[in-house]
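Example noted here:
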Amino acid sequence: MRRLMLCVLTALPLTTGCGDTRPAAPSAAAGGPVVVKDCDGKEITFARVPERVVTLDGYAAQALARLGLTGKIVGTGYPAPFTVDASPYEEELSKIPVLAERVPVTEVVAAQRPDLVLTGFSAFGGPPGSPKDADLATVNAQGLAACMPGGGMTMNGGPSGRAPLTDLMPVYDYVRRLGAVFGVQARAEKLASELRARQDAVAARTTGAKPRVMIVQDNPVAGQPIKTSGSGTIAHALLTLAGGQNVFADVTSMHADVSPEQVVKRDPQVIWVITDYTFAKAKGRHLVDQVKRNPLLTGTTAVKEGRVISASQYQVSFPSPLNFEALERLATDLREGNP
């Protein structure tokens, strides 16, 4: 079994025989089995619609909820992304059995007897003990991960795409692939279109000068590098779409280390604090307040002019429908300078 990533997805008629020797069960997809090409271009066949799904994280569960598929989830890990959801899906998400507060280990996932394991991360097996591709094959489960162009991001902040990410195509792709696998293509296309319309509405009002923005993930400490988000990340895509310029677009990783001297030299006009990372010394508004008072940043135009804004990492770090709420708020904050 190979990890399913997001590239090309096609529905094939029953007569094509997709290399799957199992008898083809009735599928909600028109015509029968669904073939998904992974990011290496290899074909994986879904002969039937999955019925028992484990989501390793709240990002994947958020996507299923918006497709009307919450009832197929037999358990989820890492429910933290549910805490920032004030949508109509909040109640139904709260009813999903929580297997672990972090990404669940393989034994816990296997005990749910899933036929499909989903993640909003770009790879399986990131956190220690969590299921890898081989583990999923052992428990006879397929696996589907969200895909980032040029490389992946794991919950541990693994490598990200080398090329700048300037749109939210990973979200649209994931939604459409889920729609095909579960036989709800029309529903998925409608959701993708609605999300794209929200992106376009933001773009229509982001005119004029683009402020220089620095992303900060923790309160800086003298003598230590500052954590920022590079250009190969969802956060960078959101910032670009919202009308800002990432002052550290020349780095790519999710948790890039930059020097305080470079921060002073590049002089951001806005500081965007991404809160709730596990390594941060403070959470939420406490972190934002600390950043505003930090002597390493007080000389920047951003702090002098009081332009320090924030968002939770649960909305801006991985491909998710939650990205669009963050995009709309970020565009407003950049335009109005709200904290």
Notes: The CA atoms of residues 63 and 321 lie 6 Å apart. Residues 185-205 form the longest helix (21 residues).
